[in-house]
Structures are given as C-alpha cells and as structure tokens.
Design a protein that fits this description.
The chain has 433 residues and is α/β, with parallel strands linked by helices. It is 44% helix and 14% strand. It binds uridine-5'-diphosphate-glucuronic acid (UGA). Residues 122, 151-155, 211, 214, 218, 252-254, 256, 259-261, 263-264, 322-323 line the site of uridine-5'-diphosphate-glucuronic acid (UGA). Keywords: NAD, Oxidoreductase.
C-alpha cells in the first residue's frame, strides 16, 4: 500500500514509521520545514523509546520518507492519514479542528484516483462527516471515502502499542474503504488482533469514551486512596482485590497524583463539551475532571503536611513529566504542585531525566543534573514521576544526603515496611505510613 501521513507530530510519526514497518510505502508530510529536514537526516523531534530505530531501519529500506510537498507525496497514494493536532480550543474546551479541516482541504486539491482519507487525529463525533463534506465541496468529482481510525498509543510505549494493539478500530461506510483498511492492518491479523469495523460516528466516540473511562478509573482509585488513608487501609490491596474481577480489570488502578498528559485532560473536556452540545450531559466526566483538578492541589497540601510546613525548607523533587519515558510536561501534576510549594515559601531542587528542558519554560527552581545532587542538603525528598532510575535508589546514600530522612512518594514505588526499616519517615498514596 502507498500511504501518506499528514502531520509528523507524535501520532503521525509513530504511526507512519510503524506502518512502514508493516511493509507499506509511507511518506510523512509536514508543513514544518525544519522538522522535515531534521527527519531526513535522522533527527527525531520527540522523545519516544525505540522510535529512532524504527525510523532509521525503514528509511534505509526505502519504505519511509519525509516531505513538505503534499502534492508530490499524494501522486499514487491509496490512503491519506490525517494525524494533525486537535488541541483544546482556548476558552471553551472544545477540540480545535482547524488543522484537521485545513488538511482535508489540501487533500481535496491533490486527490488522484480512488483514495481513502483516514482520520487518525482525535476528533469529536461528526468530524469525519465534515471532512467528507469539505472534500466534496472542493472536488465534487473526487473518488474517495473517509475512514475514522483512532489511535490508542501511550507515550513511552507507543511503538509496542502500535505493534501489538488490544484492538484496531475502523469507522467507514463502504466495502471499498473497509478493504483498504483491512489491507493496511493485515500484518496484525497474524497475531489475531481484533479489528472493530463500525461507522465513523461510533468510531469517533470509541476514542473519547475509552480515554474518559480510563481517566474515570484512575480518578476512582484516587478517591479510594483518600478513604484508605483515613482508615489505615492499603489502596494497592484494594486495587488488586478489585482488579482480579475480570469485569473490572487490574489496569489503570494505580493511585497517584492525578492523571496528566496531552490526552486525558484534553479529551475528557472535549467529550464533556460534545455531550452538552447534544443535550446529553455527562455528570460522571464532569466529576472526573473536577476531582482530578482538585487532586493536584491536594497533593501539594499532602507534601506540606508531611514536611510539617514548607516555608523556608528545601524540597528535592525527582520526576516532573506527567509519566515516565517521555519528555512531555503537558498537564503534568508537577505544573500545579511545584508552584504550590513555591507559593508556600519552599525552595525547590529538581531533576527529571528527560523533562527539564520543557519544565524550564514553566517554572524556575534549582535545576540539578542527576538524582543524588538533587538530594544534597534538602529537608526531604518528593517523588513525582516513577522513572525506573528512581525505583532503586541507594537508600543509605539518600539518607546521608538529606537533612532529614523524609520521603514523600506520590507513585508508591517503595514499600512502607522497607522504608521503615531503612529509617525513613515515608509518606505514600493510600497506604498506611
Ligand atoms: C493515553 C491512553 O492510555 C492511550 O490509550 C491513548 O492513545 C492516549 O492517551 C491518547 O489519547 O493519545 P498517555 O496519555 O500517553 O495515553 O498515558 P497513560 O499511560 O494513559 O497515562 C495518563 C496519565 O494517567 C498519566 O499521568 C499517568 O501517570 C496516569 N495514570 C495512569 C495513573 O495515575 N494511574 C494509572 O493507573 C494509570
């Protein structure tokens, strides 16, 4: 198959590279000339483990290339994917679809022969229909179908998620488009990945409903963690006991400082807006959003309590990104927690393996180059993100560097009994101290 991927951001680049690995000829197109020039010489603009190798191997094999000129790229394309951003629109929380619609118009001008126009960007219900209308308006003669094909990739494990998805969802309204989509994902039939064929509308909802459901699951366990703290119960035992019920499932039941990232906060808000717009408001998602927003402040207060007040104290913070294995700081809990602590008069020393370049745009703290330098002379340590390198700290060294052996672990990566025998005052989430 000959495929064009419009948008070489996170989703476009990962999807384009992985589709070329499936054996297709893929051209990734982006209007950002510097980005495309960089990609041509192997410079990957985002941090995603394993992506550089997949890109390099497929560029070498000739199946993957990068262009700024859509017209040339589309010459013989059988499918064109739209993988541009759909950020929250300033002011109202709706998804901003201007990039999607601009891409649709440009595609329309360059269509040649039967083509499936596939939306991979996360778009509210009804968008694929609008994409089809835009194309028809520009080119009433065009021979095309639209298809909705949402992505379910997690940052940090996107390559694995693409290679071994739980499912592929495709919304389209013709057998011809279905056949093209089936061919694109043919390699996945080998490991019996279910492919859910449905309408564009249902497919669009599946994406938002999945993210909102996962966000609700996290928020639910976070509230149970609060109850556990109040009654000396253990939220990890509660999550395990719940999760073994196959109807509930054990994933996304890790209590923590609240969900962040480029997807859950944006998509829950957008779904909320869509539901309101269609006169079918959702109180559940409204509560999820509000509880998660409040949670980040609560975590600031939790740290303050553990330190017995933070004014004039130095706090060492390890981890700033919204989760490990990414440099993404979007809606990271640290963006609320660090300013909260600073406002209360704390001095912050911080280190993150990949996120500091981005974090520097958001707040000013004492930046450190590695873990143990961060701890030197601090009144206590706070772990905000569960990077692997923070999971096996040399506790003796930690203790000798800190003024006081205090660890606030908002990701529950240590065991309370182990920390107690190492002589630490240890505060975690939803577990007895
Ligand atoms: C999420 C979804 O998991 C993907 O399926 C989806 O494709 C993607 O959004 C998207 O829409 O593009 P991502 O945002 O990369 O992926 O990260 P997750 O691993 O889902 O984590 C999101 C947030 O929830 C993080 O802040 C994480 O720390 C938090 N989380 C996750 C918890 O607090 N507890 C958990 O049990 C799981």
């Amino acid at each position: 198959m000959r495929i064009v991927m419009i948008g070489s951001g996170y989703v476009g680049l990962v999807s384009g590279a992985c589709l070329s690995e499936f054996g297709h000829d893929v051209v990734c197109v982006d209007t950002d000339i510097a980005k495309i020039e960089g990609l041509k010489v192997g410079k990957i603009p985002i941090y995603e483990p394993g992506l550089d190798e997949v890109v390099a191997a497929n560029v070498k094999s000739g199946r993957l290339s990068f262009e700024t000129d859509l017209k040339a790229a589309m010459e013989a394309a059988e499918a064109v994917f739209i993988a541009v951003g759909t950020p929250s629109r300033r002011g109202d929380g709706h998804a901003d679809l201007s990039y999607v619609f601009a891409a649709a118009e440009e595609i329309a001008h360059n269509l040649k022969g039967y083509t499936v126009v596939v939306t991979k960007s996360t778009v509210p219900v009804g968008t694929n229909k609008k994409v089809a209308e835009i194309i028809k308006k520009v080119r009433p003669d065009a021979d095309f179908d639209v298809a909705s094909n949402p992505e379910f990739l997690r940052e940090g494990s996107a390559i694995e998620d693409f290679r071994r998805p739980d499912r592929v969802v495709v919304g389209c309204h013709s057998d011809r488009a279905r056949a093209v989509m089936r061919e694109i994902y043919r390699p996945l039939y080998l490991n019996e990945t279910p492919i859910v064929f449905t309408t564009c509308e249902s497919s669009e909802i599946i994406k938002y409903a999945s993210n909102a459901f996962l966000a609700a699951k996290i928020t639910f366990i976070n509230e149970m963690a609060n109850l556990c703290e109040a009654v000396d119960a253990n939220v990890q035992d509660v999550a395990r006991g719940m999760g073994l019920d196959g109807r509930i499932g054990n994933k996304f039941l890790h209590a923590g400082p609240g969900y962040g990232g480029s997807c859950f906060p944006k998509d829950t808000l957008a779904l909320l807006k869509t539901c309101q717009e269609y006169g079918t408001p959702t109180k559940i998602i409204e509560a999820v959003v509000a509880v998660n927003d409040a949670r980040k402040i609560q975590m600031g207060a939790k740290i303050e309590k553990a330190f017995g007040g933070v004014a004039g104290k130095t706090i060492a913070i390890l981890g700033l990104t919204f989760k490990p294995n990414t440099d993404d700081m979007r809606d990271a809990p640290s963006l609320v927690i660090v300013p909260y602590l600073k406002d209360k008069g704390a001095k912050i020393k911080a280190f993150d393996p990949e996120g500091m370049k981005e974090a520097k745009k958001h707040f000013e703290v004492e930046w450190c180059n590695e873990t143990y330098e961060t701890l030197q002379g601090a009144d206590g340590l706070v772990i905000l993100t569960e990077w692997n390198e923070f999971r096996a700290l040399d506790l003796g060294k930690v203790k000798s560097l800190l003024k006081r052996p205090l660890l606030v672990d908002l990701r529950n990566i240590y065991r309370p009994d182990m920390m107690a025998s190492a002589g630490f005052q240890y505060v975690s989430v939803g577990r007895p101290d």
